[in-house]
Structure formats: C-alpha cells, structure tokens
Amino acid sequence: MKKLAYLISNYLVAAELQKKLSPHTIKAYRIDLYQFAEYAQGHLAETETLREYVIYLNNHFSPRSAKRKLASVRAFYNELWASGIIDHNPFDKLRISIHSPQQLPRIIPEETVNTLLQCAYKKYRAGDRTTLRDIVVLELLFSTGLRVSELCSLSHDNFDLKENSVRLLINGKGRKERVIQLSTPELINLLHIYCNEYNEEIKANKYILYNRNGRPLAPQSVRRIIDKYLRVGKITSHITPHMFRHTFATSLLEAGVDIRYIQSMLGHSSIATTQIYTHVTTQKQTLLLAEKHPRSKMSFSI
C-alpha cells in the first residue's frame, strides 16, 4: 500500500496548500481515499477494480455516502492523470450507477391546505385587495396541479375563462397541448372576480398574475405567498409550490381517477413518471380496504 498511500498523501498536501480546500473537505478526502487504498490493496486500480468498488459502495453505504466516496476517488485519479503520473484515466471507461432509493412525493395534509385558504379568505374579507391574488395563486396550485413556472406564465394565450380552461404546451415541446378544465364553481367565480378586479393590469400586459409593483409574478413570489400564510396560520411545516402539484395528483388517484387522466393533466410524457403517486396512496388503500371490504364486517370465533 506504500506507493498508493504516498500518492494519496501528496495529493492531500497539494489539495490543502495549493488548492486551499477546506479542512472539512480534506478530512473527507483522507477518509475516502485511504478507505479505497485499503480496498485496492495498495495498487492503482484499473477499470475492473473500480467497477467492483462501485458495487462494494452500493452494498455497504447509503447512496449519498457512496456518491461522495466515489467522487473523492475520481478527483484523485483526475489529478494523477492531469499530473502525468498515470497515462490514462480508468474512470473514462467506467459506467457508474449508484442506486438511489425512490424519493416519494411529499404531499400537503388536507387540513393544512384548508388552513392556508381560510387564512387568505379571512384576510381578503378584511379588505386587502392583494390578498385576492394570493387566493387565486393558492387555489390554482391546489386545484390544477400546475407547476409554479406554468402558474407564473399564465397569459391571454393559455388562460381562457370563457371555456373555463388552461391550455399548456407539454414540456414546452412543439405544439402538443394539455388542457386543464376548471370545474369547481367557487374557483371559476373567484377567477371571474379576480379578472374583473385586475382588468386594467391584465389588458395592459400579457400575464394574468402580478406583484405589488405591477410586474408579472415570479416563482419566488409564489413561495413568499405560501410562506406568508404558513405564518398567519401558525403552520410549522415546510411547504413548496411543487408539493401542491403532488397533492393534486395524489388526491385524484385516491379518489379513483384513472392514472392515465392524471398523467394527461400533469403533462407527463411517460406514465412511469405518474406511477410514483401509486406508492403514496398505499396507506390510503389499506384504510379503504379495512373500511369497505366485506371481510371487515365478518366475525368468526376460533
């Protein structure tokens, strides 16, 4: 291990003195590289050994740790190659796959959405004009599953109150559209009230939603709107605009809507993307089975 250990030692010194990397980074590199040296038994590994090391990392560490450890080794080999110590980089021929667990969508509890909307409506009834826009933002996020970028880009071109619909390009490609129908009477009435109230701004400009300065609403403004009503409602949860989209999809799936329709409304090009929501509804399905299945009404003695 002496030769590899020597190269690692020199690399760490250069990283500290020349590249001025932080002590935390140097410490992580030291742990990762000497761990790799032990696995490689002191030899400069070729592609096959590196491939086996990836398997080892996958089997013994979390995806996050495995990626960091492999990144440390890759940086070390890149430096060896750049310095001319090795005449080829074995990472160039390595196909790397670190297995990450599927991240399930985080949804917003129904009571939390209800509290957010109640706070916004209460503030509007107190006479705050800008709160009407806030209510529209929250309602559209919850009722349509729009991405925050799509919400902010609503304009004369894709927002049609005569047809009560929103038309959007799927993934922004070509002219293939997806149409989201607005079917809730209260939401439709709210949108008519909003468009009448902001008629001058909407006529004078392209977009539907505006900030206090009369500029089109930006994604960061939507996040601030959500945070404002989290504070008003004394809700400690962290909620993002995209969680409304997850909640929209999961709620429809739990209500029995065919996943293909949900795919269409979300604008997913592949149903595989939409199917992640089926995992979220497992607990709900268990409760429904317990409540609705005939077996729950039968009782037998042993």
TrEMBL record:
Span of domain Core-binding (CB): 2-81
Pfam families to which the protein is assigned, alphabetical: Phage_int_SAM_1, Phage_integrase
The keyword Glycoprotein appears for this protein: no
Residue stretches making up the Tyr recombinase domain: 103-290
InterPro entries: CB (IPR044068), DNA_brk_join_enz (IPR011010), Integrase-like_cat_sf (IPR013762), Integrase_catalytic (IPR002104), Integrase_recombinase_N (IPR010998), Integrase_SAM-like_N (IPR004107), Tyrosine_recombinase_XerCD (IPR050090)
Signal sequence region: none
Keywords attached to this entry: DNA integration, DNA recombination, DNA-binding
Family to which this protein belongs: Belongs to the 'phage' integrase family.
Annotated function: Site-specific tyrosine recombinase, which acts by catalyzing the cutting and rejoining of the recombining DNA molecules.
Full protein name: Tyrosine-type recombinase/integrase
Species this chain originates from: Allofournierella massiliensis
